[in-house]
Amino acid sequence: MATIRDVARRAGVAPSTVSYVFTGSRSISEETRERVREAVDVLGYQPRGGARIPRVSRTRTVALALPTPGGPRHSVDGRFAIDLSDAARGLGYDLLLTPSEDKAEGLRRVALDGLADAAVLMAVDLEDARIDVVRELAFPAALIGRPTDEGALPWTDLDWEEAAALAVRELSAAGHADLVYLAPGEAEVRARRGYALRGIAGARRGALETGAAVKVVHAVDDPAKLASRLRTLLSDPTGGGRRRTPTALIVQHPSAHHHILASVTAAGLRVPGDLTVVVIGTLPGDPAGRGLPRIELPVQALADGVTRLAVSAAAALREPAAPEADPGARLLAASLGHLLIAPELLPGALPLSAPAR
């Protein structure tokens, strides 16, 4: 079966030029376009998605590539869609939501059918298959998430690792020696979702830096099951005949913090009397996290930044004389320190001090 590289070799052009012909994302001479058409016909090349060589035009649309695997949806997806739409509109673009169960094929279809000038990719895995797709097709894109290959595409993200490490350090400094880190579910970890793995790495780094005992466990979406798991974790006896229970809980799971207080109460514990709870990744203004020390996810800053990165990449690809695209790699600092101690930011914030035993 012919590949894009076979077409490029026969037409005497680079593979990226073949991609430009199919996506219409850069001006190509009619002579070159005709050579590519001839090579496509001779080799019987058919891009996945059934794309045809499109007209050269601008759609003034940014696609939001949002995977839709099985399982519960999280409110963070809708919040990002709204803020990304606002950011795109501010730059004179519309936002096209392109949900797909197959992350790579959904994005390939958008690129080859010329539905958008650029894409924003959410739910980024450390080794995300969509990166190879957009690079193969020379389709402008930017990521909300930090991939392993940080130079592959422009990206922006919260510093999840430092956020988790900061939470551990702050709690340790407040007298907590035994902590539980409630990480995202096992499915997120198996998928190598960047935010999940970096958060876990940060919790473990914080433990090494402070000497605190940090037990990393995976959350579940069912409140009753979560309460049962917490009841077991928070009353777990240790060796030596001494009953030692964790005095602090750090929650990173994207939906668990919505029912964490109810789950802790069901486990027979009081917050903050028996247990200090800190949450990472709450949505700004989310009432579920009110009164809890927390690191809020800077949704608007991430949405504004990634949209500008995507539009910049599109402009650089479309207009060779345009300024070089913004390389991206914007890591937003975790703001745990001031959120935990500034009363004006957290009215009625719960204390961090370890409960007396």
Could you give a quick summary of the protein structure above?
The chain is α/β, with parallel strands linked by helices and about 350 residues long. Helix content is about 40%, strand content about 15%.
Element-level helix/strand string: HHHEHEHEHEEHEHHEHEHEEHEH
Cα distance, first to last residue?
A: 69 Å
* Helix proportion: 40-55%
Spans of at least 5 consecutive residues whose pLDDT stays below 50 are: 238-243, 321-325, 336-350
Strand content: 15-25%
Give structural notes.
The chain has 357 residues and is α/β, with parallel strands linked by helices. The protein contains 13 helices and eleven strands. The chain has helices spanning 4-11, 15-23, 30-43, 75-90, 103-112, 129-136, 160-173, 186-190, 194-210, 223-233, 260-266, 299-318, 336-341; strands spanning 61-67, 94-100, 118-121, 141-144, 155-158, 178-183, 213-218, 248-251, 276-282, 294-296, 330-332. The strands form two sheets. Strands 2-1-3-4-5-11 form a six-stranded parallel beta sheet, with helices on both faces. β1, α4 and β2 form a beta-alpha-beta unit. The chain is elongated. It starts with a helix and ends in a 16-residue tail after the last helix. The model is unreliable at 238-243, 321-325 and 336-350 (pLDDT under 50).
Descriptors for this entry?
357 residues, alpha/beta, six-stranded parallel beta sheet, five-stranded parallel beta sheet, 13 helices, 11 strands
Task: Compile the SSE list and pairings.
Layout: H1 4-11, H2 15-23, H3 30-43, E1 61-67, H4 75-90, E2 94-100, H5 103-112, E3 118-121, H6 129-136, E4 141-144, E5 155-158, H7 160-173, E6 178-183, H8 186-190, H9 194-210, E7 213-218, H10 223-233, E8 248-251, H11 260-266, E9 276-282, E10 294-296, H12 299-318, E11 330-332, H13 336-341
